[in-house]
């Protein structure tokens, strides 16, 4: 089966190239990388932890691409993101990557994209990209329960309600 949702990453080369999950996905031809924020399509679902809305299953109706901001959040100017109407934050999940294992809200780009895919009902595509990392499928195991609940939510309000049960 082919890729159902196009994957894009905006890279500013501020992260460690040896640990960069986007570089690995790019090597396998699984993601399109752009180095100028203006090259990110305005119609994409932009994964942005500062977004006003959280991703939810109904977003799948219009999503044709997902874009990860693969950069250091310390240097990112989020005011540049205002033109994107389709900005979405991810709900509570914990990292499975070796650098931030078990830490909440500190996902690699591949973990963030995979989480978005699962919530949008594209589990197979999430598995395909995570399989490229020896720790990748652990992300799905570690977050199995919340991801399943988020993927079954009716809307973003319900996703937030589910999230509140995890962060209490």
Average pLDDT level: 89
Q: How many β-strand runs?
A: 5
User: Major beta sheet, specifics?
Assistant: 5 strands, parallel
Shape descriptor reads: globular
Q: Specify the number of helices.
A: 6
Overall description:
- The chain has about 170 residues and is an alpha/beta fold.
- It has one domain.
- About 30% of the residues lie in helices and about 10% in strands.
- It has six helices and five strands; from the N terminus they run E-H-E-E-E-E-H-H-H-H-H.
- It has helices spanning about 20-25, 110-120, 125-130, 135-140, 145-150, 155-165, and strands at about 5-10, 30-35, 45, 65-70, 85-90.
- Strands 2-1-4-3-5 form a five-stranded parallel sheet, with helices on one face.
- Helix 2 (about 110-120) packs antiparallel against helix 3.
- The longest helix is centred in the C-terminal third of the chain and has 12 residues, at about 155-165.
- The radius of gyration is 15 Å and the shape is globular.
- The mean pLDDT is about 90.
Mind sketching the topology for me?
Blueprint lengths: L5 E6 L9 H7 L4 E3 L10 E3 L17 E6 L16 E2 L20 H11 L3 H8 L5 H7 L1 H8 L4 H12 L1
Parallel strand pairs: 1-2, 1-4, 3-4, 3-5
Helix pairs in contact: 2-3
